[in-house]
Amino acid sequence: MASRLSFLRSALPVAAALIGLLLLWQLGAMLFDVPTYILPRPGAIVATAIEKAGLLGSGLWITSVEAVLGFFVGTLIGLAAAVLMILAPPLEVALIPLVIVINSVPSIAFVPLVLIWFGLGIGSKVAIGALAVSFVVLLNALAGLKRPEADAINLMRSFGASRLGILWRLQLPAAMPSIVTGLRVGLARSTIAVIVAEMMGAYAGIGQIIYQSTAQVDYLTVWAAVFVASLGSLVLYGVLVAIDRKLVWWR
């Protein structure tokens, strides 16, 4: 009961702000008679989303699956790399500069290459999503795993704890807040990367719907697709926040 009340307290201000923004948007568009191709009214966008619910729902499902798969693959790569660097510090010295060089270029810039390597199917979208996620998870996990002080690590060693035991019982719990922060950022990056990849080459998905609707000068469908994609991203983020509260319950 208490958790539900806490959820309502945090959700109501967000819902009120969103409704207020939509009302201002609707009134402003009506008052200034803004053309649809510049800024359509929210009512028209919602009506189009309802009218094309089948198309948009199918595209959202495909994009969500690709983004979530890319998120999980990137998370596993980032966490595994961080753990290896903690267990073998020379690896961090050798690999971090290379990782930074690769990620100094936005992951979206690699989309054409990824499409060539993996094709127009789901593989290329998962790959670009994983690339977008792995770097931010790696950096946050590294920072978190290094958080425990040397005195705490030495104390556990004095009681006979192995390196893996210290990692599991001390460093990983201390790193959870940083890791979860990386996961939140990574989920957004994965969704963006997948949608852009779909716009540049895909058989289906929200990004491909946006691309085709733009080519057909169907701006209401473009806005409806963006609206549906935003709702989907919000749901995924809400699921991640719920998982965060379970994993990092002491915050």
TrEMBL record:
Residues 56-240 form the ABC transmembrane type-1 domain. Belongs to the binding-protein-dependent transport system permease family. Keywords: Cell membrane, Membrane, Transmembrane, Transmembrane helix, Transport. Its main location: membrane. InterPro entries: MetI-like (IPR000515), MetI-like_sf (IPR035906). The chain crosses the membrane at residues 12-32, 67-88, 95-120, 126-145, 166-186, 192-211, 223-243. It is a multi-pass membrane protein. The keyword Membrane applies. It comes from the Bacteria. It is found in: Cell membrane. This is NitT/TauT family transport system permease protein.
